[in-house]
User: Fold these one by one.
Assistant:
Number 1:
Amino acid sequence: MLTNIIEQLLNGLRTGSIYALIALGYTMVYGIAKMINFAHGDIIMVGAYALYVAIINMQLPAIPAVLLTCVTCAVLGVVIEKVAYKPLRKAPPLAVLITAIGVSYFLQSASLLIFGATPIPFKSIINVPAVKLGSVTVSGLTIVTLIVTTVCMIALTLFINKTKAGSAMRAVSEDKGAASLMGINVNRTISMTFAIGSFLAAVAGILYICQYQSLRPTLGALPGIKAFVAAVLGGIGSVPGAMIGGILLGIIESISKAYISTELADAIVFGVLVVVLLVKPSGLMGKNSTEKV
Amino acid sequence: MKKKLVSLMLVSVMALSLVACGSKEEGGAPAEDSKPAADDAAADASDADADANAAPVAGENTFVIGGLGPLTGSAASYGNSVKQGAEIAIKEINDAGGVKVGDTTYQLSLNFKDDEASEETVVPAYQSLMDDGINALLGTVTSGAGLAITDLTFQDGILQITPSGSAIACIENDNAFRICFTDPLQGQAMAEYMVDKKGLKKIAVIYNTSDEYSTGIKDKFEEVVAEKGGEIVASEAFQKDDVDFSAQLTKIKSTDAEAIFVPAYYNDAAYITAQANDMGMSLPFFGSDGWDGVLAAVTDPAFVEGAIFLSPFLASDDSAKDFTTAYEAAYSATPDQFAADGYDTVYVMKAAMEKAGSIESADLIAAMDGLTVDGLTGTMTFDKSGEPNKGAKFIEIKEGQYAYTAD
């Protein structure tokens, strides 16, 4: 029984850390550009397909393929921002939101056109054998996922808190006008935020595709929504909030699937979100403010 | 003189194709078909006679089979297989001179539309088939989509034969028949096989709650296993489009299950077996006929090695040799059960036409009762219920290949 609980927790931790990686993108973009980038989930999908193209079509070894995937997604994130969101910086939030949904559909339909709707099987590039700790089996992929996400989170935290570019990001999210008066290039900082967010989404996409091994144009939609929920749960705009929200969400989902009901798992996840928002409207780690989405 | 002859031919060809337009079919497409034939006649006057004879055959004496199935989306493999299987059968029949009904000989043609295995898409797809004009319906390939149009086909009074729609209600109406097994029958056959033949007593089930096919098999399976003194140690649900099965598998891992039964489609089966492998589970897998095609969906055939599922057809078997050769030549792929179902459906329609001596829908439907056809998927005897009444066979995945089980 205990073994089972630990294994279920590990399952939740693995899914949750992928959610957290994606949620970071949502929350950073929201913090800086004050917009919900609904196309973020589809960057995961682009990342998965990019890896597929790099490995199968270009025959690259795993490491360069992963790097190429991350760079592709980061560039894509910046391009999307420049083309779709930058012209709307002064527009009402609703216009930006609808544009984001449009970009999301654009990405999905583009990959539908290029790769077709039939799922493509794709072999995991992470081949680490499962490890047995006592009676608990931990799959190799779980270990890799946990290590990669931990490294990403530590690096991101250090970057935001210790570097000049990180300070610039914090300053822009605090007050755009004042930051630009202090000599911070706001446009470049926003581009950088999109690049970092999309980079993390690419990492999440790679981990996701290694886990599920099947490519579909809509594969980013569900993790995208779940990660958005995680970001809101943790307090949108807060980086530690997104990490905690993602991991919490994964664990709640896994435990309710295992011990309550598979059908009700999603309802429970969203129920928790409703309760948290009722009690603490700004999310678990969010700052109290009167911002409207 | 020659010119006059040619123009005379052309006129007769056009007149005949007009007649085709006026017949009960809407005939837009057949009339167009005859145009190139007319052009040929003009280009090659000496062959004009033969072509002029051929043209009305294509225009008037064509029996159009409408097809519905997923050609794209997650169940695309089924739809494409059925379509290609049916095309092979149609080509064979046409090459052999067509179907003789009374004094007329009919050529068969297929008008196949994509329904994406979706309840929403299938209705307009069916309606557009009816607008094009069809004599009988081959479809749908999947149960869910089929249930959405059973009442429509009944209202239209058209002969409907589903190659692989296995939900009970797919053939509830008098005009509908099927080639495959029903869902409960599959559940029963698998339960008998696992408990009686394999001696398994503790069985875990993973099924799709949002799919009639999966729940239909699972309900009967659990019932029969219990009757036989076996025990369902875990009955874990998932939903359409779920990709993460680790919670269900971890739960099964903590039970003393001896085997896992997965009544689901091949894509789900691919996810489940890969994740079970990932978690270091080595329980044997058993599946329903939706598993056919799983080898193309998994990234490593070792994930499904030893899995056993129910299927009426195996390409490597001697009885299927001619079909397999023709199919491989045409599509450079090995035919699966669905291709064989599609092939058999066309032959059943041919048999019904010959027995009825007419191509009127009502006569065809009446002829289906008591019709016996020896097909690739076994000998089928149809009755008013619409069932094919045939035996079950089991397939095991051995060394990355499908093979009939020894017992």
Number 2:
Amino acid sequence: MEAEGDVRAAVDAVWRFESARLIGALVRILGDVGAAEEAAQEAAVAALAQWPATGIPANPAAWLMTIAKRRVMDGFRRAARQDGASAALARDLEGSLAADPADAVDHVEDDVLRLMFICCHPALTTEAQTTLTLKLVAGLSTREIARAFLGSEARIAQRIVRAKRTLTEVDAVIEEPGGAERAERLTAVLGVVYLLFNEGYSATEGAEWMRPPLCDEALRLGRILTALVPDDAEVHGLSALMELQASRLAARAGPEGRPVLLDDQDRARWDAGRIRRGLAALAEAERLAGEAPGPYALQAEIAACHARAATPEETDWPRIAALYEQLARRTGSPVVELNRAVALGRAFGPEAGLALADQLVEHPALSGYHLVPSVRGDLLERVGRREEAAAEFARAARLAGNASEREFLLERSRAASVEG
Amino acid sequence: MQFMCMLKNDERSAPAPQEVYAAMAEFEQEGRRNGTLVELGGLLPSAAGAIVSLADGRISHVDGPFAESKELVGGYAIIEVRSRDEAVELGRRLMAIHLEHAPGWEGSCEIRQIAG
């Protein structure tokens, strides 16, 4: 006999670790995401009912898989009384259940990766992609996702339903992306994971400036990807980038959750274990990429420049500026150019940074982006144009979506106008 | 949150090292696939180690093997999970894998949350 609370906790934990594999395998069998998720959940419900009496099985994942497949087969059998196609499916499944379990294990990595590809299908909006990835791959409940995104549970549930409907409409499950399409889909998956990380690292909305649990989810997804696609340089590059950035999480927030700038951070609070793992992943990314590091590896290399500097003064800013230039060539992103302006300012003086930042003011893709006036404000302050700096910080504060950041920018605006 | 799982057993009655390695290899593979495993390491028998201690203001040391200790740490894993319950479930998996791969192995997994 197991206590009911223990069983609940065990089922929750097993669900979180195993649901992606479970749902991935069931998607392969059923050809439908919604039906696969339902069958997997039914198995979890069965576990809650049975494990208190039988005890937690030695291999809970295998137990859940067997039950889920059995339920699916029962469903096919019932339908088989009406039509022949279901009868054939039921026979196939019976065959696969009877086969050597080691056989099924070989599919597992493909199943999870395919599930990730489905969740990041191009027919879905980015919002839908991130939500489905959290639900089906990371094993979060709708309530947990709602909490993470500060949305209502009903809205998240609706988004999931709509996303699944879209997937059915475009026959997403049937596709087996290969070649260039596979590469594109993997890029989409990495993009979704990094988006999740960033939403945790500097939240775009709400009162909290950071939401570390989202970072943890993204880091976990990154680790899963390195196991699934170990020969892809950018998979390791992304893992490196996230580990290196996450190493600063504890040092980035002050006592009241307010942001602490890189220069002011207590570097002793940087997580040495994460830095070590980040640098190891970066070395692997660079080994695999050879001469042409991808955007994630380049960003990780920039993060590594900070991680390697024991004090802000030791930071190799000329190298960071050069890396941003490489990254700008790769991505053509004006946000990267903005970062390069910061690096130039540090490496060669604020005038050098300002020259580039001034060019970005009119860039259409950056209109309304609070970091443009924020970066300009900083550079203007350092060349002594304090009034203009104060105005830029005030403008940045109006554009910032996040309360802590807004407060921080207003303070800088006041400081710039007072100290002049 | 991160936990350190310290795998302890009586090294005098441990089964063949290959069996224990096979168990740890499977745990490692599972942990990588589900993204919970951060680091994993095995320790050589205590004969290769030493204990340095401070007592009554005096520092002393003894070389291994540590004959008087029954359970010794033989390996460790650092895992990243969301709760102690999840850590316990992984600890249970680790024991189940030992049961399967290294029959006769008896021991425990001490699970401690890493500060910070």
Number 3:
Amino acid sequence: MSGSQGEDGVGGWVAAFSGSTVRYRRRLAVDGVTLKVSRGQVYALLGRNGAGKSSLVRCLLGQQRLTAGRALLFGEDAWASRPRAMARVGVVPEESDLPPDLDADTLVAWCQRVYPRWDDARVRQRLRRTGVPPRTPVNRLSRGQRTQLALTLALGHGPELLILDDPTLGLDAVARREVWDTLIGELADRGTTVFLATHDLAGVAGVADRVGILVEGRLALDEEVDALRARLRRLVLPAGAPWQALAPMGILSCQEALGGVEVVVERFDDALLAAVGGGPLEVQALTLEETFVAVTTGQAGGGAP
Amino acid sequence: MRGVGAVLRKELSRRSQVFLVGGVAGVLALLGPWVPPLRGETANDARLLVATALAVAMMAGTALVHGATSVAGELRGRCLSFLFSRPLSGTAIWAGKSLAGLVLSLGGGVLAMAPVSFLAPGGLAWVRWEVAVWAIAGVVAVGTAAQLVGVALVSRSWLLVLDAVALAGAVGATLAVAASLWASEAPVVVAVAAVTGAAATLVVLLVASWAQVAHGRCSASRAHGAQSLVLWAGVACILVPLAGYTLFLRSATPASLRTVTTLQPGPDQWVVVAGVTRGRGDYRPAFLLDVASGQFLRLLPSEHSVLDLVFSGDGRRVAWLAPAGSSRQTWQVRLALLDIQPPEVRETPLVFSAKELPRRLCFSPDGSFLAFVEGRDAVAYRLEDWREVGRVRLYTPATARLAFSGPETIRVEQWKPGGGEEDGELTIARWELSSGRFTETGRVAADPTSFHLSILDLATNRMIVGWRTVGERELRLCDATTGEIRAVLGRWPANRVAGVLFLADGRLVLEARGKEGARLRVFDPAGHQLAELPAGERERVIPCGELVRGVVLIKTVDSRVGEGDPLDSPSGFLLELETGILRPLPAGRVPAVCGILWRWGGDRPRVNNLGARLLLTPLGAIEVLDPATGATRPLLGTDGQL
């Protein structure tokens, strides 16, 4: 993977990992992950706690060094070119890293000096809209307000890439909704590329274009959301139907359901379904959460490169 | 710079209350006169004292707290990523935080001083660049050290164990190097090493703190690793050269001497030599050197340590006094004794605590007893068991001269003040150590302003005493026991008699200078003049020693002689007394040791003693003259400033 392939304007990717490995002494946190985030794409990196999501995010931000492999931002090594790359990146970390004793006004003024392309009016408008008090120190803001402030500061300079590490962690449903709304609004307005690590499968389902699922440090799945939905299906067959004929679709699970048999397949095929005969009572696409559970419990995968 | 400014602004925003505290401290300092312990001071001084104390506390405290929390606190609170996720380089983040610590600390200190400085007369006296340099260095050192320690503790890494080991090693090595340097008694070397070491340490601390932030970024363990690597490598880079230089300093040998500043020969083959060596600054190593074999022994770390040194008459022992510490009021002095064959320095139990240094060491002829002046007393010790065998009170210790006239008998010569301001007499006494009896045997009346010198020849029981009458000096040959005058040797203009030499056969040679130049006069043992030898028209003609019987080594000095003159000043000659023949020493060499006050116990120098055989070459090297052949042999290659 060369740097020029992913450079801005080439129409390729803006962020990428290649054979990336992170090791904490004896523990392997990330194991040879390779993935790309294309321009304009919303990439959701999913995984259970400790799967290695945050490690990958920190490496992409140039805050942590990979044990092996490469992390690239805009075609350059993320560790070496961090200050330059950060001018084009907005970041919302998992835990608030805002200086606890400074207020929103001070932070906005400070960021205005740091970023040459700071949109102060838009930032202040967004703060008003999200109800973040301007003169209250960060340590007296609610968790939701802190996240909104972080998101607002991350978007203030019109970043080309937004990197979010579980931004809705610990937020209540309303606050979560507000975060996703802000994000969706930003995407609608600017088409910003987003690399997102999250547990919030429900929230991310509406915005992600592509998902990657980390299982114990390895990328078990990396696929477009639409393709995933088309591929993974739940079929409800009448009782006594020859569900074994679905084997070529890759049966992930099979269990008795009310009035029939429920079969989950990982390579759904209409033609093959017709050949089974009798036809299913119902064909459903899996939710992202169901997909995540299926992948992380070892029942599905194969989408990873 | 924009990044540095941004980080600086953020840090100052977070801790701006420091300036408020500094201002409050400044106002509180105005209450100095009401502080109970300062009620004895003037109001002005009390305010300045309190303000200074508060300012120093402000600076040290702020540097400490800011240093310990600015990085470590943010690493622990996971806030440092706020800066690292901005377009700010690691160097800018480090510089901004460091500058903030400096600005906050100095700002707080200046604010604490400000009210008193402007209100009190002379309150701005502290505004000097030296104060600024020390304050900046101190704040940077405290702040940076606190930053390193803070991150090390936050990381909770196993590296802490290595840090502790490395710290212990560094402290131990530093103490060892410092002790060795300190013992060299070379204040310039010590000062340069201390300043260089401190400055280098400061640089290492700064580089380590930079590595901590720039390379550690948001990881405490990575920051700790980076700082430890730089810190201990840097400390090693300071300590290894310093230790190497210290070894080099202390490894000086007589061959290292570039300039000989002290040359003190014993009776036979041993000489105490000290001087300047190349690349060792003001370190003055002192050696006991065997001129026959070249074998040497380091006497003390430095020539500065030799307060007084004396050989025994048989040349077997050397004793000297060395500082053993000092307090504000008293000196601590240690007496060291060295048996020359085999060479062994014996530490003695004698450590004196006195307002005045012990002095006038003298050995008994066989080196069994040592006497000296201590305080107001003359004391004698038996060296076998270091037992004090006698002590007598002196009239005037500063004028006292001690000399063993027998194995256990000491001749004591001292000035005894009279009733009037200018009255008094030179008294001579015999002090028998076996019985403790102190008997006055003679006296020489004189007024204290005229008494000038006394030169003793114990072997023939004679002494020369000089008086100054109006405009003239008169030399008399006296009985060394009774003080009775045996002969008047002559009168010369004041301050014009310098060199006197007693010869082995009882004759004596002295230098007398008149308007026409210097002359050597030769007297028989009874004091009758035998001859006057012009020895050329020189300003000075100094008899330096009797090389063989009847042949005197002399040194002439004449600044009036033109360049290229074969007798150019200074020059050395061998003078045959019987014939008056003057033979120049080879190739412009001069006697290296000249003078009248021989150091071993007042005994007359023997013929062919070592002092008479040491020559100084025109290039400053020291050579040994063979009296039999007249040949010379190099001893010390120096560019000699003897």
